[in-house]
Amino acid sequence: MNEMAGAQGDTAIVGIFPGRRNTLQSEVLARLLLSERLTGLDAVAGLNTTRLASAVHILRTKFEWPIKRHDFSVGCGDGRVEQVCEYYLSTEAISAASRAGADEFVPDVLKQRSERRKEAPKAKREAALRNSASFTTRIDPTRER
Questions:
Q1: Global confidence as pTM
Q2: Staple partner for 43: which of 47, 82, 100, 141, CB 3.0–4.6 Å?
């Protein structure tokens, strides 16, 4: 973990920037560095993942980023009230990260993730083929039980 000086007497913690820029963890970090506050629903819609908490855990533990969370209640369309978790970085951490290289990291991550998304149709076809092969193997009547 790097300690970067903020305003006089202040310090903010800056984690390690992931080396691979086309990963989910890198995109989550990039969005947090852009002052976005992310929920699980945001992750499904904008990041194409249901694994936001896992990515945040990796960023906190492996890369040592001081990601904060805010839990709040929401009323659901089916009449329930549920707790939602929102992840974010403090403004001090974002400022310190900017001085430590985030201004180069963020656009590079967003560009690489955009390029990777162009491969989505191919990945979906590959997944369908794998699932089809797996299903065929499971129902093969000649297979020993």
A1: 0.79
A2: 47
